[in-house]
Here is the input.
Amino acid sequence: MKKALLAAACVAVATLGSTTAGFGDETCNSPFVEALVKGQEKYLHVWTLGMPGVGDESDKMVTIDVDPASAKYGKVIHTLSVGGRGEAHHLGFSDDRRYVWAGRLDDNKIFIFDLIDPTKPKLTKVITDFVEKTGYVGPHTFYAMPGRMMIQALSNPKSHNGETGIAIYTNDGELVSTHALPVTNGGDGYGYDIGINPQENVLLTSSFTGWNNYMMDLGKLAKDPEAMKNFGNTMVLWDLKSMDPKKVFSVPGAPLEIRWSLKPGDNWAMTATALTGKLWLIKQDDKGEWQAKAVADIGDPSKLPLPVDISIAADAKSLWVDTFMDGTARLFDISNPEAPKEVYTKKIGNQVNMVSQSWDGKRVYFTTSLLANWDKKGAENDQFLKAYDWDGKQLVEKFSIDFNELKLGRAHHMKFSGKAQSAALGSEAAVSAR
Amino acid sequence: MVKKIPSRALAAQLAGRSALLAIVLASMVSGAAGASYPAPGTYKLQKIEHAASGWVLENSTWMPRRLSSYLKGRITLFSFFYSTCTDPTGCPVAWSAFEDVYQRVQNDPQLRGRVRLVFLSLDPRVDTPERLSLFADNRRATQKTIPWNFLTTWSDSYLKPILEDMGQSASRELDESGKPTAVINHMLKVYLVDQEGWVREIYTTAFLQPDVLMNDIRTLAMEEDKSKQASSK
Here is the structure.
């Protein structure tokens, strides 16, 4: 029996091949998140900011049926309000994809939802002492580690500026450790996103701004030259195993989302700078030294298009870039990552922030909200989810959900779910028919 | 201090035993060819959580023991498995990594006698103590230098709290009619547990490289040595 099992192991491991690279998800999540949805996604969860005078005014998780074969395709099938408004922002799956963590940047609460039934996310835990436990403010990025959740914060409770760090929690929501962003050797202490390349044992972080700025009205902020100085201008390369910062890159203008190439054999990542409107490439040079360099403009940087979310294709040939101010989605050909070329643009709305594409790149989803105090005002304050097909030449709209009309709030971060096809061990469903 | 790990060393070591396994594992670790890892003892493995307790069975249905008795006193590599598992990203990967660590520890006089390997079944109905003894029998000769224990439980209801304590989600796949199948979906996780029963590292497929496992085991051994030296002064 043992030989048989070992033989099975050999065959099984052989089939792994390059998939041991571990990169995954559709297409921006931690490489440690499993159960990738590589076929048709069934549900889309949207972490939504409550708005005064709109519906129940509460932040909420909104679940939408996105399966074209479903009778409820394009409809909201579930909402779960969590109470209050605390600047709901980003989501992140646990490593086993059973849970999704959702953060709020103002009151620092973290909500953990159980997705074992993705049609009805269930709130299982609320972490309310993030600031007291970690010494940081603004839990932003939730990035799965094996058995843990790595959280990149944006600020701190003393100055509320951008000096901050990374906190690591168990999947049960208990703090394990904290790791300050470097403020020496060129580091400015700011944080924003996390990107891990397990095969290289490296972690990349980017940098945004602190609570003082991200909670300020955008118009007021733009007219405050002192406040405008308080943005991150760096990225940091860390030794993942030891969590030691190894190198600080100068990347001026608030580098935000980090996307490692998912193509097997590639060892490079890309980011977009919000204030300077450029794509940056982080890659090893001929000597194996990691370097960062600007490789393309995004629109006309002089007009401050404000690049926000980016989404890389699984084959690393293309990259969607949303520019918030003109509400435009831009597709870059990055088959040569040293020289990306903008090949397609489409205006999505008055404003657009997040973009998520399916694993095969054939479906692309957009939402609108950036931050409650940075979103546009009045009639320009579009709040929607729009779903498109990408046919290789253009985006073709499939459906749109108006979050204003449905009194849901500001649509922000999205995550996909597949269909539940298993039952937890020990549950009645797992044993009933055995 | 950063040390380059020879990523293909594992394959070379195994070449004499199994050409197929060597080729397979070479492909597994080749992705780490350019990676740099800190040298053992130069970094800290955080205390993540206490390992689970709960009742488990080894040699007899009538002699339950606490799981914690297997997870203390030595540096332990622990994982869940089930004997009929064929998921290419699941049990077989853990089995290969454990087999490699098993061989390396036996050949390392500084680690021999300090490390334990533990598998706990996800399918107690199939994996009875009697069935698992078939796996354990071939490891009896090395029980002192590197024990490898194959454990099970009485039922899913005894397994469930252990899964919850270890943060290991596992679910039985359902067929088209919604009935449970023999397939148990679980994300491969391997837990490195220190002598006091603290989980100090968790590995999934993307990180389950024997060189990294051995580095971490040596780091815990060095930590223990320092602690003993300090307490003897």
Q: What stands out?
A: The first helix of chain A runs from residue 2 to 16. Chain A touches chain B through 63 residues (CB under 8 Å). Residues 1-25 of chain A have pLDDT under 50 and may be disordered.
